[in-house]
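Last lecture ended with a question: if I hand you only a sequence, what can you say about the shape of the protein? Today we answer it with a concrete record. The protein is YXWGXW repeat-containing protein. Below, first the input exactly as provided, then the predicted structure, then a couple of comments.
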Amino acid sequence: MNVVRPLIKLRHVLLVPLALAALASTPVFAQPEIIIRQAPPPPRMEQAPMARPGYAWDNGHWRWDGRGYVWAPGHWQRMRHEGRWMPGHWEARGPNWYWIEGRWVR
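The predicted structure:
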């Protein structure tokens, strides 16, 4: 009886769950932290559309494109979690401005 074949199969059986666990713990994407020394312009006033079931309105905001601020208009966020949508915003920390991504809060 050949003992090597069952050991090879056993090794594959053990490696597959380990590989899947490693993939599951790896972030899908990493967003770089945006730090700017120039304050963003005042927000534009946008009228939010009527409520839409299953969605939350994400207000427009100024985003940094590498050379300056450009306006990103508001859009709908599909509800993925219970809770409410907290829009992204710029936050001052000393002389720098940091972009804080929008997120769902419970």
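Comments.
1. Confidence is low (pLDDT under 50) at residues 22-29.
2. The CA atoms of residues 21 and 54 lie 32 Å apart.
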